[in-house]
Protein: ATP synthase CF0 subunit I
Amino acid sequence: MKNVTDSFVSLGHWPFAGSFGFNTDILATNPINLSIVLGVLIYFGKGVLNDLLDNRKQRILNTIRNSEELRRGAVEQLERARARLRKVEMEADEYRMNGYSEIEREKVNLINATSDSLEQLENFKNETLHLEQQRAINQVRERVFQQALQGALGTLNSCLNSELHFRTIRANIGILGAVEEITD
Structure:
């Protein structure tokens, strides 16, 4: 905390007559730089992000519609299976004397097969929705990361001169050396 307050106190000691300098104290300047980068990203990336999200929303809605059509088809198939089941039940009453157990097994098999088909279709729909959501999330993350990286690189390239660049590299090498000594 002392470094942060020292950086603001030292502002009074800077010469004002035509000179300009960079504050290389990382603890004092990082929150400022991060807030500027985040503000720029939010301001310029909002439209692109909204477009991406709208496109993803449309794809997900289309997938939901397709899944609903599949579900309707499965419901129709279930209705046909129920009609067939009623027919089989009527035949079962007629043939009760000849093989009640055989017809009952066919009925159970038909119900199980239809139930399995419906369950598989429901699972497929849920998997499709989950995959589309994950793909949308990953695409949005990738776009935001690319934009953040481009903005940060642009900011760094516009702000760093060669002397400051070399000092920053030397400071980072020193930090990495200290971290390496701590881990050994």
Remarks:
- The first helix runs from residue 2 to 9.
- Confidence is low (pLDDT under 50) at residues 11-17.
